[in-house]
């Protein structure tokens, strides 16, 4: 995302006149989520300054700061666990734009994770995981892309220790144990991974408004 993210953290980039993270917060509040934890690293102080305690959005926001080096997705979630409690929790990537109905996510899960999968975008044609009868597996005849929306049990991280580590290996191990459920969302979803995609999605979203 450089040079856009040289001076601005990715969650504060704008699409359709609204920052990515503000859109997520509004969607979460409308879905009934009132306690949010925001994990931040690069230029994270700007996020704290922009959002504050969440009162303006009708939610309570607490922050989990990553101190260098970056902790990756798994390490970042593990670092935030003391703020997340003992029940399953939703993790929503800040660098996506979607109209996924968050109210339909399960608040309780039988396994270790529940993932939202989407059709493979042009920049990721091979997909990530396969979905069959509500269960997610590493491989299958029809591969889909992980949409950056997941509900996780704290138990998923029970064998982890502090530090940087990716999330995907934990999910793959849980899949091999048939402990990852999922769903296929076919509505609007965009991965904001490059400046070019940000510009393209901005054009799409403005036309939708």
Structure description:
The protein has a single domain (4-208), classed as Spore Coat Polysaccharide Biosynthesis Protein SpsA, Chain A (Alpha-Beta Complex). It is built from 5 helices and 12 strands. Helices cover 26% and strands 26% of the residues. It has 209 residues and is α+β, with helices and mostly antiparallel strands. The longest helix is centred in the last third of the chain and has 14 residues, at 195-208. The mean pLDDT is 93.
The CATH class name reads: Alpha Beta
CATH topology name, in short, is: Spore Coat Polysaccharide Biosynthesis Protein SpsA, Chain A
Number of domains: 1
The radius of gyration is: 17 Å
Helical/strand content category: alpha+beta
- Overall geometry: globular
Cα-to-Cα separation, first versus last residue: 25 Å
CATH architecture: Alpha-Beta Complex
Give the overall pLDDT as a whole number. 93
The run of helices and strands is EEHEHEHEEEEEEHEEH
Give the CATH H-level superfamily: Spore Coat Polysaccharide Biosynthesis Protein SpsA, Chain A
Q: Helix share of residues?
A: 25-40%
Stretches where pLDDT is under 50 for at least 5 consecutive residues are none
Number of strands: 12
Main beta sheet: 6 strands, mixed
- Total count of helical runs of at least 4 residues: 5
Fraction in beta strands:
25-35%
